Amino acid sequence: MPALMPTDFSGTVTWLGRVADREATLEAEPLQEVAVGFAGVAGEEHGGLTRPSCSRVLSQHPRNTVIRNVRQFSIVSAEELALIAAKMGLERIDPAWVGASMVVEGLADFTHLPPSSRLQGPDGVTLVVDMENRPCQLPARVIEGVHPGFGKAFKTAAKGRRGVTAWVEREGRLAVGDGLRLHVPDQRAWQGFLPLFGEAG
């Protein structure tokens, strides 16, 4: 019995990028097409099969522990970028400023896609959604360099709209204009959280 359900929901890749040297800048280089391997995109700072653990997983691992890299892609939605820009008082936010790997248009509430959802491209290339990405100050610095006085507003404006991190389940190619079909796990939401939100009964 299949564990993942193909849905009728799909999005379109509107932008691709690569961060070559995060120490130098988070700003991404725009690309029209990328080859996607099991380690991610060649030359991408976030690529690799493993990575050193960071502040996001300190409750699980000491900093710099070698762990599986489920942050090979940073994916944001065009709609949520527009909302962030509006909240900041900017006309637009260039995806390069936030170090995005990909921008997808057409999938509502993108940042809150169920973890373990799949985004599958035309040739079968498949990315697995790890979880919601969290806003940090690195994009704020890039934005501040372009629009002085606005960078400090990024973290608050991007809360709940920062997109998702993802890793490669199946190799292939991705290009601007490609469609991505959403597949979701065939399971109900975990009930263990209900008492925490006062919904038990």
From TrEMBL:
SUPFAM superfamilies: PK beta-barrel domain-like. It comes from the Bacteria. One of its GO terms (molecular function) is catalytic activity. Pfam families: MOSC (PF03473). Residues 5-183 form the MOSC domain. This is MOSC domain-containing protein.
